[in-house]
Specification:
single chain, about 375 residues, mainly beta, nine-stranded antiparallel β-sheet, six-stranded mixed β-sheet, 1 helix, 27 strands, about 0% helix
């Protein structure tokens, strides 16, 4: 059975319905995704913003680092990275991290129901190299520091409540976070060449001030079963969290992380893989591996941030590669969705869908200049599958 196929008949119509076909297979693992025709057709010529898109899709620039966001008095941050969208009345908010050290932090831009920018503002300051993060079910943004002994900060996308440091979630080189409301845990990736995959179990769901940090324990293969084991000292000093549990499974540069329908996906940049954890039966496998593409010519390299659509498609942004966001469909086809031209010294970050699912936000972290001060944040609108 195809990896995520049964989802269409399982709980169709909800965002969580989008993933999880592997649950029907038990321990029979599917082959990783292979190249094929994308759901939206071939990419067209680059538009005025230098973005190649399928027919029917259009792009616009939302913000540029160091410049005032149009319609506001707020200057957009440097090196935009991980992001997420939040419903705001009839409009929405897009939050974005800043991957600079020091100062880092995160900002937000607010849109009305027609997509017009109405305000922009800071939601986190004084932190270090905020790379990716994750959205919580209670509508906060977890902003993660990608530095040794880094923290997770819980922030308010509306900018009303002060950001709060969450040391109980562990101190390590954090990358991304993904909340699982079924098991009431938060999954965490670690950007180290011998990093681990973690989950944080809050003592009270919705309150991240205290709880238990655990690490994934499994064999050395690319598929199998897994368990969790407590990290003795989440503070990570003097012994790094990834070195405290001898049986912990190592991953080569953890990056983006996404949860839906009893499944969590995360990417590892060191080996260009997308991993899939089937949480209902505690097994793991590869959803994509560029070295296993038949005939070579892998369309997706430099895997980084990842998000999912309500239809069941995964969207994986490239750090390098040829500056594409690629889509992995529920029937295990991988294909380019868009390509940014003329920005080969940059990376794509922060993909996130608007609440209605018809707008995709993302950034080119260093833009055309190749510098952190040259970041550009975009919006693509079009007939996305929902």
């Amino acid at each position: 059975m195809e990896r995520r196929n049964f989802l269409r008949g399982a709980v169709i119509g909800t965002s969580a319905a989008a993933f999880g076909g592997s649950l029907m297979r038990g321990a029979a693992y599917a082959a990783p995704a292979q190249p094929g025709p994308g759901p939206y057709g071939a990419l067209g010529a680059a538009d005025a913003n230098g973005i190649m898109l399928p027919s029917g899709f259009t792009s616009r620039v939302i913000a540029r680092s160091g410049q005032t966001v149009s319609g506001t008095s707020y200057s957009w941050h440097n090196a935009p990275d991980g992001g997420a969208c939040y419903t705001d009345g009839t409009g929405w908010i897009y939050v974005s991290n800043s991957e600079i050290n020091p100062s880092g932090g995160a900002s937000a831009v607010r849109f009305n129901s027609s997509g017009t920018v109405t305000s922009a503002y800071r939601i986190l300051s004084g932190t270090r190299q905020n790379c990716a993060g994750g959205k919580t079910p209670w509508n906060t943004w977890l902003s993660c520091e990608e530095v040794s002994l880094g923290f997770v900060y819980e922030t308010d996308p509306w900018g009303v409540n002060a950001a709060v440091q969450r040391p109980a979630m562990g101190r390590f080189k954090h990358e991304a976070a993904a909340a699982d409301p079924v098991r009431q845990v938060v999954y965490l990736t670690e950007d180290e060449s011998n990093g681990c995959f973690y989950r944080f179990i809050p003592n009270t769901w919705g309150n991240l001030s205290s709880g238990t940090l655990q690490v994934m324990v499994a064999g050395t293969g690319t598929s199998g079963s897994f368990t969790w084991q407590n990290v003795p000292d989440p503070d990570g000093s003097p012994t790094a969290t990834r070195s405290q549990v001898s049986a912990s499974k190592k991953f080569n540069g953890g990056e983006g992380c996404h949860y839906a329908n009893d499944t969590v996906w995360f990417t590892t940049k060191g080996d260009n893989r997308v991993w899939q954890l089937n949480l209902a039966n505690s097994t793991y496998e590869l959803a994509y591996d560029d070295s296993l593409v038949a005939g070579g010519g892998a369309p997706l390299t430099g895997v980084d941030n990842v998000t999912g659509s309500s239809y069941g498609d995964l969207y994986v942004a490239e750090d390098g590669g040829n500056m594409e966001i690629c889509v992995i469909t529920p029937d295990d086809v991988v294909a380019p969705f868009l390509r940014i031209t003329g920005q080969s010294s940059s990376e794509i970050t922060g993909p996130a869908f608007s609440p209605a699912g018809n707008r995709l936000y993302f950034s080119s972290q260093r833009g055309t200049s190749g510098s952190s001060s040259g970041g550009i944040t975009y919006e693509v609108t079009g007939p996305f599958r929902t």
